[in-house]
Amino acid sequence: MAKKIQFILNGNTVEVMVGETELLVDVLRDKFRLTGTKKACGTGDCGACTVLLNKEAVRSCIILAPMVDGKEVLTIEGLGDEKNVHPIQQAFVDAGAVQCGYCTPAMILTAKAVLDINHDPSDEEIKTALSGNLCRCTGYSKIFQAVKNAAKAMNLKR
Ligand code: FES
Ligand code: FES
Fold first, then answer.
1. Are 23 and 65 in contact (CB under 8 A)?
2. For residues 11 and 139, what is the distance between their CA atoms, to the nearest angstrom?
3. Per the confidence metrics, is the pTM higher than 0.85?
4. Residue ranges around ligand 1 (CB below 6 Å)
């Protein structure tokens, strides 16, 4: 049975009707047209669908939409855009870490979740944090470097 839920999406309070078994990734993509959130494996294994739920990185393909009622969701569209580029997005561009459109939004959001609580992560901590975001293309070196650079850039602004 469908029910109305209300939550904060990218800073705005929104209401939407969702089914009991509807997935958050589908609601974000199909009902809000926030297609920066990708659906790849659909089984919680690849991390491509990562969004922040109450500031924690979660896989939206295994979160039931009714579970976000009253909570806060951040997608890549809410982090920044062309006019207001977030330092993590800029760091990914500068490091050449935007390797594919499928993985990058999720990796940036995962990096944000980490850098919000750990302002100076070690290499190992960055690797551990991103270990659930799978990349099958050119590898992780530029991605790790981007997160390190983003940490520095964000610390300069604190
Ligand atoms: S699409 Fe959600 S983890 Fe792969
Ligand atoms: S960044 Fe998407 S497969 Fe490597």
1. yes
2. 33
3. yes
4. 39-42, 44-49, 59, 61
Domain that holds residue 103: 87-157
Residues 27 and 73 in one domain: yes
Residues 13, 67, single domain; the answer is yes
Domain boundary among 44, 78, 112: 78
Task: Judge if the beta carbon of residue 136 lies within 6 A of ligand 2.
Answer: yes
> Looking at residue 31, what DSSP letter applies?
I
Return per-residue pLDDT of the chain as tens, 158 residues. Answer: 899 999 999 999 999 999 999 999 999 999 999 999 999 999 999 999 999 999 999 999 999 999 999 999 999 999 999 999 999 999 999 999 999 999 999 999 999 999 999 999 999 999 999 999 999 898 999 999 999 999 999 998 77
